[in-house]
Structure formats: structure tokens, C-alpha cells
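Annual report, structural modelling task.

Input specification for the flavin-adenine dinucleotide complex:
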Amino acid sequence: MKNILVIGGGFAGVWSAVGAVRTAREQGVHPTELRVTLVSNTDDLVIRPRLYEADPQAMRVALDRVLGPVGIQRVAATVTGIDTDSRQVTALGRDARPLTLDYDRLVLAAGSQVVRPELPGAQWLFDIDTLASAARLDHHLRRLPQSAPFDGRFTAVVVGAGFTGLEIATELAGRLRDLAPRERRDEVRVVLVEKAESVGPELGEGPRPHIVQVLEELGIERRLGTTVDAVSGRSATLSSGETVPAATTVWTAGMTASPLTASIPGERDRIGRLVVDAYLRVKGVPGVFAAGDTAAAEAEPGRLTTQSCQHAVPLGKFAGRNVAGDLLGLDLVPFAPDPYVTCLDLGPAGAVVTSGWDRTVQTTGQEAKKLKQQINSAWIYPPVDDAGLILRWADHRTTWPTAEVAA
Ligand SMILES: Cc1cc2nc3c(=O)[nH]c(=O)nc-3n(C[C@H](O)[C@H](O)[C@H](O)COP(=O)(O)OP(=O)(O)OC[C@H]3O[C@@H](n4cnc5c(N)ncnc54)[C@H](O)[C@@H]3O)c2cc1C
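The model returned the following structure:
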């Protein structure tokens, strides 16, 4: 019996595991000859791209409804170490009992996390990085209308004007207006704080004029070349010396790959991702593949993958194909994702869709929002319960469901 072990129950981990089963089945390999196991510290696939929306607790899919029908064994545990010499992974089970899991081939797909700053009052910061932290923010917002009035009750400071910061800032502009009693609506303020001198520093020039126009329309204030030095439950103190009375400060700045990447003796990039070859094998570490936010793969010549669902899904499917292919002696297939696009939600102002690495604007407003809603409510969700459908969707040649695959 050969063992493939996948670490992580996000987009990349799920599609790696299902992709491996698909490849084994295509080759007529019996489940008693090749076992695929997925270890995750959550019971659900968390739909992280939706955690800026209201009701984040609903943004998940039970892992057993995707993995169970295709015979993937799930271990609910937190991985604590990886020994690539002995090909063993150590973990702590739910009951805190230590576990050792052996593998012949490993896929590391443990994702990423926001880098929380160490600053006075950091415990007052909110973030939308995990289901639990997004739920904490959601609960806090819903309670605001019931609290006694105070200066800054309906003010939110959002730190970081990248993808996540822009999505939560524009969402909050609408949400706080809906939550505030009518006679208090003029108290609603959203202040976007960004260390760089422009909003969307990594988004480039293409969509920036539209984003700036939207921020103005929504009345979102900008503090550029600035960061937050201290927070309390009632205010945020900016590096400029300004103190903004605010009940809510949301931190979105800076992402890093899972710390588990440090257990693998491979090269890592500046955000901790493992450098992989065209087949998603970690360079120089036999038997180990990486996918999703833990992998730095070439998406197109000279362009590395981004930490995004858009890349995590195909990285997972290709890693699954190749990890099984490697064990079964098949030719490996080079990673080849769909052309790069972005779709940024801008709250009540719609969305903006761009294409290419220079992010040329394709559509904006409500037309772009329709696409965002389709992506968020359908495309990124894996099918559940139906083994045939789940395996068809794992085809590495198709990133998003097509009519043929769904049929
Ligand atoms: C608010 C927000 C908005 C976003 N918007 C977009 C967007 O619009 N478009 C887009 O393409 N992308 C977006 N992203 C990024 C996208 O969500 C991630 O790139 C994607 O989730 C990465 O998938 P992954 O499987 O690599 O990692 P994750 O989704 O992070 O999954 C990692 C998995 O590993 C598990 N895990 C971690 N450590 C351990 C451990 N030690 N032991 C066991 N299990 C472990 C986790 O519990 C989780 O199940 C957004 C992210 C956020 C937070």
C-alpha cells in the first residue's frame, strides 16, 4: 500500500487530494494499493475569499461531503512537524494525543496567514483571515447599534489598502450605514490607512483611478504613507500622530505562508512560500510537493503565482495529478493555470474586473459585481456528495466548472 498525505483542508489541499484519487482511478489503481489521506485542523473547507461579507460563519463546506464520497481518509489534527528524511509527519489530534503519519509522497497545502502586528492594544484589532476572526468582527459589528452612544461608534479604520483591505473597507462603508440608526448615519466613517503612497499598491496603475473614484463616492477617507501605531477599543492612533475615534480597527496588512513551510528544507521566497519546479515538486526535497498559498510556482514565464484562490485551485489540481503520477510512474504535467485575472469587490459601488499582469480594466460597477457574485457563490465551491461530479471537477485541465464538467 502506497500513501499520499495532504496537509491542509483549503482549496489547494482538497483539490490535491481529489486530483490524486482521480489520477489513481484513471489508471485503474485499486484503493487498497494507494491511499490518500488529508489532515486538517478544521472540519470545513473555509471559503476565505468571502470572509469580508456579512455572516462569515456560513462560508464553509463540510470536508467530509467532498472527501468522503471519493474515499479520502480525513484526519482531524494539527500538524506540528514534518521530517522529510524519515517521511513522517507529527500532529496533535483533537484529543491532544500525538499522532505520527507516514507518507510516500506529501503535498503541503497549509495555506497562509495575516501577519498580526505587535503594537500597543493589538488585542483590539480585528481581522478577516480565518472563520473565527471574521465571525468575531461580524458579532462586534452587529452589537454596535445596541451599545450606548460614543464618539467613533460607527467608525472603522482599515489598515492596508491591498485586495483584502479594499474589499472590507468598501463592504464596511455599506454595512455600517445599514447598521447605524437613521438619525446616526452621518456618524458613519471608514478610514483606510496604507503605508504606501497609493491605494492598491500591488494592484498597479490599471484599476487605481477607478478604485480611487469609488473610495471618493463612498466617502472613504484615505491616509496614505501612514500606518497604525496603537489601538484601543475606542480609537486608533496613526503614525502621523492623528487619533481617530473608532470602535473598529481591522488589520489586513501583510500575508505570510504557513509556518509549516519552515519544516521543509527547501528554498523559500520572501513570504515564506516553498519554491517549486514546473511539476510542483519542492526543489531539492524528494517526495514533497507544495500547492496553494504555501507554494511559489511559475504561473507564466517570469510571473510567480499569487496567494489567491484563483491559483490555489489549479495548483491543487496539478499537484494532485502529479503526486499520484509520480508514485504511479506516469509522465508529470507542467503547471499551466488559466490567464491571470482579478475581480475586486467594491461594496455598494460594484466591483472591478481586470485581465493580465498589468491589470487592464475589463468591466466595473454592477456588471463586474455580477461576476464577483457568481465567483463567490458558485465557482469556488467544490461539489458535494456526488463522487462522479467531484472527480470530474478535479481535472487539472479545467480550473473552474464548465457546462460539460457539470453535466
Ligand atoms: C478576506 C480574504 C479575501 C480573499 N479574496 C480573494 C479573492 O477575491 N480572490 C482570490 O483568488 N483569493 C482571495 N483570497 C485568498 C484565498 O482565500 C487564498 O489564497 C486561498 O484560500 C488559499 O488556499 P489554500 O488552500 O492554499 O490555503 P487556505 O485556504 O489557507 O487553507 C489552508 C488549510 O490548511 C489548514 N492548516 C493550516 N495549518 C495547519 C496545520 N498545522 N495542521 C493542519 N491543518 C492546517 C487550514 O486549517 C486550512 O484548512 C482571499 C483571502 C482572504 C482572507
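The longest strand covers residues 73-83.
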